[in-house]
Every structure is written in structure tokens, then in C-alpha cells.
Amino acid sequence: MTDPAGAVLTGPSSVGSGPTEADWAAAVAAVRQLPADGRVLLICHVNPDGDALGSMLGFGLGLRRLGVRRLQATFPGPPELPEPFHGLPGLDLLVPEAQAYPDPDLVICFDAASASRLGALADRLATAGTALVLDHHASNTRFGGIHLVEPTAAATSVVAEELLDRLGVPLDAGIAECLYVALSTDTGSFRFEATTPAVHQMAARLLATGLRPGEISRRIFDHRPFGAVRLFGEVLGRARLEPAAAAGLGLVWTYATLDDLDRHEQRPYVLEALIDSVRCTAEADVACVVKQVTAGQWAVSMRSKGAVDVSRVAVALGGGGHRFAAGFTGLGSAEEVVGRIRELLDDALIVEAGQERPRGVSGF
Ligand code: 5GP
Ligand code: MN
């Protein structure tokens, strides 16, 4: 996902601090104490984005370097990857979920804030010998046994890199490319608030393995079929601006249907980039794209420029995410789904103690 997540820990979704030394030690031990023929299953969240796939495959390549041979990576849902990820190193680790070890010695989850993001694969949390969770969502529910959840990390790949380092695995170009795709995805190409000096230092370590950032960025961000360009034109053309929403901070939203995809002969993943074109609207703090999954079911992406905690809205509607990037599954018509969001926005304004109200807010 594109993830303008702040490194900010205030707010109702905060779960406190990141991993302790004991957590890191437990994670290292879980890997080091694997039997020689131990089976390891890596799982990332449904509809995997750059951070989910990149942190999972990069870590998987690291485990391979450590000598782990019985190693699979998977995610719930159709075993189909968005085209931008077709060149990622480590894809040979991927298996369809139906072929994933039913009772691995170790399961490791990547970038999933809750067990529900693992779909049917969530049963491995019970059948695996040990369940290790690498994540950076403040809303992480602490599922699994060992938690490496760092809400201040810009991406799950930051946690993955640290664990590889603690395991003594040096970065090579394959591992680095995966982790770089993950880091650049979740920082919006190093543009969002979470882009700290430490993020750039990590990027420098990754690039030093010989990566070509221009080529990687073009592949991941700046590359889509002409049909998708025309589809974007149509979907953006029907975007609606509601300046009064979110207590006057403004909401901009649009929707895309399965019929839109069909007419332009496009796969659903192309719609993931749409939110970036919608959220640049100057007149709105909150942006939303409602993407049809089946009749009456929509995958909703929300973004905020900083005055609204969209994760509060998403959690209230059964989803999750970060303060400034969140989502959920909506039912009904697109209008109805947006109606529910609109109702919750006024209560999701961020007013820090000692700060003035966000600009544009009137009368409360
Ligand atoms: P995106 O809009 O890029 O799909 O997702 C933005 C953020 O919201 C990500 O952190 C993602 O994990 C989270 N998110 C999106 N959809 C859902 C959902 O249906 N459930 C939950 N729990 N989180 C979601
Ligand atoms: Mn992430």
C-alpha cells in the first residue's frame, strides 16, 4: 500500500512501544532453534502490497541464506500477483495457499495487523509450532506468539531488516531489492512523514548492494497499461468533492466497478494506484476510493493529509490501518459505503493537546 503512516504514536489506536530485547531474542531463537529439516511458512496479508510481499520475500531469501531449505511463502486468495511485482527476487518461494504446509514448525506473518488479514491461512497460527509476527501497524491486535510489532517503523521491512541483521544474515542484492520495494512503497517513495533519517540510512544500505532505484521505481510505481490510464481517466472524471465533510476539511471520493474493469480489460490490482491521484485534491483533507470486489462488496481505501485519523473510521467499519492510510470492506452501494464514512469523519478529527483545531474546522 501507499502508506502515509506517521511515526506518531498518539491516538486511540496506539498499542504502546515496539519490541523489547526479550521479543527480539525470542524471534532469533525461534529461527536458530529450528530442527535441521524444519518447515517454515511465511504468510503476508491478503491483496499483498509492496511492503507485504517485499518484507516476506526479502526475509525468505535471508532464511535461505541461513540454510533453511523447507521454506514456503504464501498469501490468502488467488495465487496471482500484480504485474509490478512480477520481477521481484524470491518469487520461487511462493506457493498457492492450498499447497502451504498445514502444520509448519515456524510460521512468520508479515504486515498483517490482525489474523483476519491472513484469511483461511490464519489457522496456521494454531497448527504451527511457533508463530512469529513482524508488523508496524499501531492497530496490530497482538495475534500470534512472538511479536515484533514496531509502530514507529515506516514499513514492516524495517523490522525484517533488523531481524536479518540480528540473525547475522548480510544483505545481498536480492534481499535488498525486496526490502527496498517494501520501504519505498510504504513511504510513498520517501515522501511521507515516516521518512526519517533512519529510513534514508536503510535505503542507503540497500542501494549499496548495487540496486538500480530508477529501474525499480519505474517498474513498481510508474508503469501501467494504456487501458488502465483510460480507466483512471473515467474514474477520476466522476470523482466528487464534498467541501463540508469532515467538519469542513473536505472529502474527495470516487468509485470503480467490476464493469469499469471489464470495459477497459483491466485486472483489479491496477486500481490500487488510483488513491494517489485522488488524494492530491487540494480542497480535501480526506480522500477515498471505493473499489468493487463482488456485487455489493467494496474494498475501501482512505487517506488523510493529517487532520483526520482515518484508521478510526476504518476500525469502526470493521477494517484497520494507520492514522493517515486505512481501509475496510464495505457492503451495499458505493453511495451507502461513503455515507457511512461521512458520518464518522467528524469524530475522527485529530486535535492534539495544546494545539489549535485543524484549519477549516468550524463551530465545535
Ligand atoms: P490500502 O488503502 O493501501 O489498501 O490500505 C491502507 C492501509 O489500510 C494498510 O495499512 C492496510 O493494511 C489497511 N487496510 C486496508 N484494507 C483493510 C481491511 O479491509 N482491513 C484491515 N484490517 N486493514 C485494511
Ligand atoms: Mn506496511
Automatic annotation (TrEMBL):
Coiled coil (residue ranges): none
Domain of life: Bacteria
Domain DDH: 39-182
Pfam families (UniProt xref): DHH, DHHA1
SUPFAM superfamilies noted in UniProt: DHH phosphoesterases (SSF64182)
One Gene Ontology term of the molecular function aspect: nucleic acid binding
Classification via InterPro entries: DDH_dom, DHH_sf, DHHA1_dom, Oligoribo/pAp-PDE_c-di-AMP_PDE
Domain DHHA1: 268-348
Listed name of the protein: Phosphoesterase RecJ domain-containing protein
